[in-house]
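Annex B. Sample input.
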Amino acid sequence: MSKLNLYWAFFKSTFTISFFFSFILALIMYPLFFTVFPIALMTGGPIISLFYKELFRRNEYYFFYNRGIAKIKLLSISLVFHFTFGLIVFIILRWAVFLK
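Annex B, continued. Sample output.
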């Protein structure tokens, strides 16, 4: 398994929690849904999901460490993936609202 696949696997494991948190937060602030959702997906969601990993699934880091990936690098690459995905969602939602 290549390192990129390992980074992607870690990102997918944190993305579910991040997406759920961002969606709930955006629903609470419904009039601003299309603005809040991508921003929460880039910032608050990853922080909450990594906090959850740190508290309840701490042993998963050993899997990646045994394959030569340090925890700080794993977290930073995951945040870059979250930011990139959130930016793409932001652009798509802005474009969809603009066409309306």
